[in-house]
Amino acid sequence: MSENEGLSWPVLLNRIRTGDPTGGEELERLLRAFRPFLCRQLGPADAQDALQDALLAIYQAIQRGAIHSAECLMGFSRTVVHRQVAGRIHGMVRARRHCDCEDVVLRDSSPNPEQAAIRGEAIELAHRMLAGLAPQEREILVHAYIDEKSNTEIKREMGLTEVKYRNLKHHAKNHLAERVSRAKARKYCVPAYSL
Q: Residue 95: its pLDDT value, please?
């Protein structure tokens, strides 16, 4: 293994299955080898998030018992990382297809009153969505995306281990996405008579 040559693959799997935090940290060290690949494929900004999502998926698969032998770990990890890349690239392509590129003209960058009202509504909606999350989930998202603090700072301030931090952040992002989806569905499913 990379930094700890004495640790064997079966020992690593056993540590993760039993919930030993050193197993999660060692798995993270192993998966850092994929970071250059992720940076080349997605760029440095998205590489860290993709690596975190892959780490969480692999960690959970090990705990579920989906990986039966230690020899399969790196192959499984490679597959998860490649699927992360494919999914994110697919999402970027889909977003570009929905971009209205014919509307590219030079104009004043300050928002007009309608844009300011829309932005105000979006901010209010974001506050409502965050308020509906569990306190730790809300705190992690605010620190990470509003305060733009590093993972290390957030873990230290909140007193979290690496695995607990990644797990909380993953769940917080999923819960926020679910709340936004439900809010969008409600917006478009309003009966005509209620207007």
A: 78
